[in-house]
What does this fold into?
Amino acid sequence: MTQNVYDHEEFFAAYSQMDRSLHGLAGAPEWPTLLAMLPSLDGQRVLDLGCGFGWFCRWAREQGAAAVTGIDVSERMLERARVDTDDPAIQYVREDLEHAQLPRGAFDLAYSSLALHYIDDLGRLLAEVRQALVPGGALVASVEHPLLLGPRRPGWNVDDDGNTSWLVDGYLDEGIRDAPWLGRRVIKHHRTIETYARLLREAGLTLTDLREWGVTDAWLRERPDQEHERERPYFLLFRATTSELEVSA
Amino acid sequence: MTQNVYDHEEFFAAYSQMDRSLHGLAGAPEWPTLLAMLPSLDGQRVLDLGCGFGWFCRWAREQGAAAVTGIDVSERMLERARVDTDDPAIQYVREDLEHAQLPRGAFDLAYSSLALHYIDDLGRLLAEVRQALVPGGALVASVEHPLLLGPRRPGWNVDDDGNTSWLVDGYLDEGIRDAPWLGRRVIKHHRTIETYARLLREAGLTLTDLREWGVTDAWLRERPDQEHERERPYFLLFRATTSELEVSA
It folds into this structure.
């Protein structure tokens, strides 16, 4: 089973204080970019892989989604998600994405925010997503950028002139990275962009959009001590679609 | 016009001594990976963007290509290419890819090895390539990986334990990089992977394969002092195709 750090009491308490936990989508600086990659949700059946507190599920319904299913492994997060809605068209399911079975042709859109880098067998999950989507359906997802997650000895180097560089090693050496985050060692899986592209292709999904998100001027204005964040991409966002051709298959 | 460093006498002499100049495709360590991304060339009409000495053009004919057009801005390189073949099905054209006009629907495959990062207006060139390809045609290309080309202050950092990291800054800050190479300042254009993906999409090409090539064990066995090269990807390789659907359009 996937490490479920979110149900650890102190981690959960710390995570609950993050901007994206307190303010939802508006608290996630990459959200405007993800939003631009999403299709219209009006009348759509939506799946959220790693839904957490359910912010996206509720937002999708506000956009006219016909039905939304949110899946998460964290009981604590789903408890709060259920408290925050009484919408019968939103269904929350506790399941480990590492092993989840998804219904065939049941969704127009699959969405996943910062969850896929926790998955060991991502190829299996993407194949599940692929068969759960209707022809012409799409997956829109974000993960930590491999430049951020990949280094075995992550850190900043400041030269004699005060110029800051991000230290990159082990980019091509894929596998587990277990860095401390919010007081816990959190297990993530480093994959190159090549591997994300290959796993999507092998699952029968066509990569139609790829973004390397970096911090914005607005984000930096409130965090002037984080100027070095300009030097690297932070999140990798992508959209992949099933072929329209299968409509007639 | 694009900087034409290859026609500078000393640069040309130094470039001519590189493995890939002396030994052609076999001297390029990324060649086996590019080869695996190529379709069968039997009977195909092939375009080589930045053909240099014409190694790929001659190889394509050996594979059964019906006709091959090689384009390059370097007169010196084309002179030698013309000396090396008397095959009437290979045509060498001296043209600056920055401004080249390509015939409509004339090619099944466009190929480009380490040339596209010299182009300023890559969107224009990709649109030309797109319309020069038949429906179902493909572009297979390699460029310097943006992690290699992007840093404004490239270099290696060695920590107190002897661990080596590649210094990355300015990854998201696209534009000209003019680093010394073979004794000349060579002007290249740094683009993120996001931008390559976007330019292909905007040109009407679908990204169907993406590789982040890093040095191989075989390459390192002959260069034991280059172990640090394991820490970063070196070339970005991609394949993009026009839609098959247009056959009936």
User: Anything to note?
Assistant: The mean pLDDT of chain A is 95. Chain A touches chain B through 34 residues (CB under 8 Å).
